[in-house]
Amino acid sequence: MIALSRIMLPNIKNIQASWLTVGMQTAEICLHAGANDFGSIMLEENVVSAAGTASLYL
Question: Model-level pTM?
Answer without folding.
Answer: 0.61
